[in-house]
Write a structure and sequence with these properties.
The protein is about 45% helix and about 15% strand. It has 9 helices and 8 strands. An 8-stranded parallel beta barrel has the order 1-2-3-4-5-6-7-8, surrounded by 6 helices. The chain starts with a strand and ends in a 5-residue tail after the last helix. Strand 3, helix 3 and strand 4 form a beta-alpha-beta unit. The chain has about 280 residues and is an alpha/beta fold.
Length: about 280
């Protein structure tokens, strides 16, 4: 099974496309995960630039976070997913629904995503993320029970934060969740937040070990399922995910440097393929 590791565009949006792509290539990533422009010409420019550089594309849809009312959220989700699929990415990672929408409303959004993905032949997976339908294990599990086709992006740092733990007290919630994972956001969270300052620091080792164990399990599950590939995106983000000093706002770590260091850790651990 091929292991593909993607660079997040999040945190580097101020860079010109050519500069960002050169940075991605120099670091050794296999592709880019990004939210695509709504303008078709700009979307095609990004697609072509990445293809010419030999980089894969994971499209991301997160902008529905700004649509708090259901009808507007549904309309935005449809438009954003159509736009993402039009770029023919390997997959689309979607921030879907809200934790305060009704189960029927969230199921309608999940079904909408499934229809759009099927029409385009592009897998659409739903990110575990605070504030979404998947924001807490007890919110997600009923959807897994009722929808055998529901697939996920594992960003388990959000559950650490939501549950104020490293989930050591609830293996029964991870057991049905991890087999549904098709994409990993390789960021390390802790019991009080979604991002440690530096995952290499001694005080972060317990949290790192927990995340690595989850990722190892997902790799093993996908390998056993005969999956041809598994995608991962180191996703340490800028402020406010990157913590900063009071008053000055000086960052306590460099998100891009953390992402490159995580790329190197994942390569050491999994190589370019597992068998």
């Amino acid at each position: 099974m091929e292991i593909l590791i993607f660079a997040p565009h999040w945190g580097s949006k101020e860079l010109a496309p050519a500069v960002f792509i050169e940075r991605v290539l120099a670091a050794g990533f296999d592709g880019v995960e990004m939210a695509l422009p709504a303008d078709a010409a700009l979307r095609e420019e990004w697609r072509a630039r990445l293809a010419d550089a030999g980089l894969g594309l994971i499209a991301q849809q997160w902008e529905t976070a700004f649509q708090p009312r259901f009808e507007a959220h549904r309309a935005a989700l449809a438009a954003l997913l159509e736009n993402a699929c039009a770029a023919r990415p390997l997959l689309v990672n979607s921030h879907t629904g809200k934790d305060y929408f009704t189960p029927a409303q969230n199921r309608e959004l999940i079904a909408l995503a499934a229809r759009i993905g099927s029409e385009h032949g592009v897998p659409i997976v739903h990110e575990i993320h605070r504030g979404r339908f998947s924001g807490h294990p007890m919110l997600l599990l009923p959807y897994l029970e009722s929808d055998a086709a529901l697939e996920l992006t594992a960003d388990l740092s959000h559950w650490c934060c939501a549950c104020e733990s490293l989930l050591e007290d609830q293996p029964e919630t991870l057991a049905p969740t991890l087999p549904r994972v098709r994409h990993i956001h390789a960021r390390v969270g802790h019991a009080q937040g979604p991002q440690v300052i530096d995952f290499r620091a001694p005080e972060a080792q317990e949290a790192l070990a927990a995340h690595l164990a989850w990722w190892d399990t997902i790799v093993a599950l996908r390998l056993a399922a005969g999956a041809p590939r598994l995608c991962m995106t180191p996703e340490f983000g800028p402020a406010p995910y990157t913590q900063s000093l009071p008053h000055s706002g000086a960052p306590l770590s460099d998100a891009w440097e953390q992402n490159v260091a995580m790329l190197e850790l994942l390569r050491r651990r999994y190589g370019r393929a597992v068998a």
